[in-house]
Amino acid sequence: MNVLVVYFSQSGNTEKIAKAIWEEASQANAADLKKLEAVGAGDLAGYDFIFIGSPLHSANLAVPVKEFLTTIQPGSGQKMAGFITHFAPAYPNQDMEKFAEPIKAASEANGIEYKGCFDCQGALTESLHEAVQKKLNLNDAQWADMVKQMTGHPNEEDMANAKACAREVLG
Ligand SMILES: Cc1cc2nc3c(=O)[nH]c(=O)nc-3n(C[C@H](O)[C@H](O)[C@H](O)COP(=O)(O)O)c2cc1C
After folding, report:
1. What pairing do the DSSP bridges indicate for beta strands 30-35 and 113-121?
2. Positive or negative, the Cα torsion across 75, 78, 79, 83?
3. Of the candidates 79, 67, 62, the residue with the CA atom closest to the CA atom of residue 14
4. Mapping DSSP to helix (H, G, I), strand (E, B) and coil, where does residue 50 land?
């Protein structure tokens, strides 16, 4: 199979997961790893499986990822799966399904089989800590707990989980 792992990442977390998925996909396939910015609509033809990765931004896929999904056309791969990183420790399944919905919708609208979405924690970039602590209305002790929980993610376990998930959907 020809596999494309395409991702948007500002602080490197989603990129780490993209690399793990690409490493896994490369075991038994011809796999390309590309930043979203480097992929045009015409570059998707010829791939059998596309993994698309995004950080969670304000409970949504990042805007460039949403824009990219609008360029998906029939024939842009036969199967598609997503991966998302977020600083929150975990979201209920139904929230994750809602966040990944644009990936599912783009797949279904173009006759592409949707294979689900992996997600894991990815530490929030330092420069946003103060603003997010305020927004979430957490006191310093609560925020310290939150920071402790997210620090180091995605970690080795997250990457191993991403690989296992990729292995499963690639079949
Ligand atoms: C503008 C912005 C909004 C964010 N909104 C959320 C959010 O709603 N929920 C969440 O859990 N994480 C949120 N995050 C945290 C990122 O999703 C998380 O740190 C992610 O791993 C960053 O990925 P990246 O390093 O690939 O850019 C937000 C980050 C930014 C920069």
Report:
1. unpaired
2. negative
3. 62
4. strand
121 Cβ below 6 A of ligand 1: no
pLDDT of residue 57: 98
> What CATH number corresponds to the domain at position 47?
3.40.50.360
Measured from the CA of 91, which atom of ligand 1 is nearest? Answer: 11
AA identity, residue 119: D
Structure-derived torsion over alpha carbons of residues 97, 117, 45, 11, reported in degrees to the nearest 10: 100
What is the reported pTM? 0.97
Domain count, the chain: 1
Residue 83 contacts residue 53 (beta carbons within 8 Å)? yes
Q: What domain range is 18 assigned to?
A: 2-170
Band of the pLDDT at 42, cuts 50, 70, 90?
A: confident
Looking at residue 75, its pLDDT comes to 79
Q: Which has more confidence, 41 or 103?
A: 103
Helix, strand or coil for residue 48? Answer: coil
DSSP 107: H
Mind listing the pLDDT tens digit for each residue in 79-115?
999 999 999 999 999 999 999 999 999 999 999 999 9
Looking at every residue in the chain, the average pLDDT score rounds to 96
Q: How far is the CA of 66 from the centre of ligand 1 (A)?
A: 15
Asked if residue 80 lies in contact with residue 74, where contact means CB atoms within 8 angstroms, the answer is no
